[in-house]
Design goal:
By secondary structure, this protein is α+β, with helices and mostly antiparallel strands. It has helices spanning 2-7, 9-49, 52-59, 70-83, 116-124, 166-221, 238-292, 299-330, 343-360, 380-397, 428-431, 454-464; strands spanning 63-64, 67-68, 88-93, 98-102, 131-133, 141-151, 154-162, 339-341, 364-369, 376-378, 403-411, 414-421, 468-474, 478-485. The longest helix is centred in the middle third of the chain and has 56 residues, at 166-221. Bound molecules: adenosine-5'-triphosphate and magnesium ion.
Length: 490
């Protein structure tokens, strides 16, 4: 599974996404840090030199009698610029028009600057960071110092000093660049690599667990239906694991059920062909003889052959019916339709029907019903079928002159039906297997021969009712079968 981890496209996809994110973060970091450090520099610059314009105006009177005193101002402007080449000095009139300036290198490209930042700056006395128009680069704004110029007590204009000149900006950006390159970038790459390693480890951890799910799903698809995602799958994938495992359980159960139905169908076909062959060939054989020896047979012989053919076909019908009933129950195609009813009434009905058969065999059949037996909650048709099968056996195996006693009693576990006969009994070692299909005691006894499915059907019926069933028998003394259905509580 570990091998799979690094060949997993998922791992590489997530890793690529991580790399991309880290690169984006890196660019963002570079951008933000360059922006903030530039702004920091400008702010510091403004704080340091905020009074420069005021000093200049105090030293020289740039405007006298409404006119710019060019000689005096240029003088002082130059001396300022000799000391600090990063400044650019402008004289503005009261509307913000540039009326004089001393600027190194390039030319001035604006004729006026916005006055609002200038007035704000003067009002706050430079306490707040304010940027104003750069006359040399329209569209950019820089830190400045400003002071009002008075000519005989009236406002004549402003001294406006840009604090970071072009030259200084160029030097700064070089310095900044190399600084960033040397330390910032280095630190940043270290951080990137650490983040990458941690990220790849985390992705490895998650994909390792995710791959367990993927691998399990793949093997499940290939037919290993018993496989499940291991319990130690973590990384927040436990919900996925549980969902997959539950789904796998359901699919496996469905497949098992389909298989069992299929198995049953095959068994049924095998059994049907085997079990039906004997009575079918008997019927065919006798009918054939009757056809071929038409006219040569004595009436008694004819009668006998017809009787055998008829009995064989009846047996065939019984076999088919039993087989289909059992198969349906086994394949869980029968859903019990439960209802509350009185077992006493049902037993009364069924025994009335069996009385004639019992009388024919000279068997005494009696029903004993206890008082106040509660209702049961069961499928009436299926329970009737179970009672019939038990009575069929009792009648079939009890010899003439025998007795069949049916008891209905109220027990702690439910309502009990007990059918006891005085037949040959079932050997003790056979009793535990008697409910299995095709299990017959002394199967060679042709008179008693049935499908061997009657008791298996009764057991299935009791199983789908969650009811218990049992047998008590003593050879030569008789047999008692009982079942106990849960009482109706609703
Ligand atoms: N009351 C009984 N007394 C003695 N033996 C019994 C009794 N009931 C069942 N058996 C034995 O158990 C076997 C299985 O009974 P079961 O009802 O399943 O099959 P069957 O009666 O032979 O065939 P089917 O009921 O399908 O026609 C019987 O063949 C018989 O040997
Ligand atoms: Mg039977």
């Amino acid at each position: 599974m570990n091998k799979y981890r690094f060949t997993s496209p998922l791992y590489w996809k997530i890793s690529a996404a991580l790399l991309f994110t880290l690169a984006l973060v890196g660019l963002g970091y570079l951008f933000i840090s360059s922006y903030t450090s530039q702004r920091y520099f400008q702010e510091v610059n403004q704080q340091l030199y905020k009074d420069v314009a005021k000093y200049m105006v105090e030293e020289a009177s740039p405007i006298v009698d409404g006119k710019v005193d060019t000689a005096a101002t240029h003088d002082i402007m130059h001396s300022m610029m000799v000391i600090n080449r990063s400044v650019e000095v402008y004289i503005l009139d009261t509307k913000g028009n540039i009326i004089d300036y001393v600027v190194p290198f390039t030319s001035v490209k604006r004729e006026a600057v916005a006055l609002a930042p200038v007035e704000d700056f003067i009002k706050n006395d430079g306490a707040q960071y304010i940027i104003g128009d750069d006359p040399k680069a329209p569209g950019t704004r820089k830190a400045f110092s400003a002071a009002p110029i008075y000519d005989k007590e009236t406002l004549a204009g402003y001294a406006y000093i840009i604090l970071a000149s072009e030259e200084q900006s160029a030097v700064l950006s070089n310095l900044f660049g190399s600084y960033m390159l040397k330390t910032g970038t280095f630190m940043f790459f270290i951080a990137m690599i650490v983040a990458l390693i941690i990220g790849l480890l985390a992705i490895g951890f998650i994909t390792r667990h995710l791959n367990k799910v993927i691998e399990t799903a793949r093997r499940f698809k290939e037919g290993d239906y018993a496989i499940r995602v291991p319990d130690d799958t973590q990384g927040g994938l436990d919900v996925l694991r549980d969902a997959f495992n539950e789904m796998a359980d359901t699919i496996e159960a469905n497949i098992e059920q389909l298989k069992s139905i299929d198995r049953l169908r095959q068994e049924l076909i095998a059994n049907v062909s085997h079990d039906l062959r004997t009575p079918l060939s008997l019927t065919q054989g006798y009918l054939e003889t009757l056809q071929m020896k038409e006219g040569q047979l004595q009436p008694e012989e004819r009668q006998k052959y017809l009787q055998i053919a008829y009995e064989s076909s009846e047996k065939l019908a019984h076999l088919i019916a039993q087989l289909f009933e059992y198969s349906k129950l086994e394949a869980k195609q029968v859903q019990p339709e439960k209802e509350p009813f009185l077992l006493a009434e049902l037993l009364q009905d069924v025994t009335t029907r069996y009385h004639i058969l019992a009388e024919e065999k000279d068997i005494q059949m009696q029903l004993h019903v206890q008082d106040e037996v509660p209702l049961v909650f069961a499928d009436l048709g299926l329970v009737e079928r179970a009672i019939q099968n038990l009575l069929d056996n009792a009648l079939k195996f009890t010899p003439s002159g025998g007795e069949i006693n049916i008891h209905l009693t109220n027990q702690a576990t439910g309502v009990e039906v007990r059918i006891a006969d005085t037949g040959p009994g079932i050997p003790v070692n056979e009793q535990s297997q008697i409910f299995e299909r095709y299990r017959q005691v002394a199967p060679g006894n042709s008179k008693a021969k049935g499908a061997g499915l009657g008791l298996a059907i009764v057991k299935k019926i009791m199983e789908i009712h969650n009811a218990t069933i049992g047998v008590q028998s003593r050879p030569e003394q008789g047999t008692a079968f009982w079942f106990c259905l849960p009482a109706y509580t609703g």
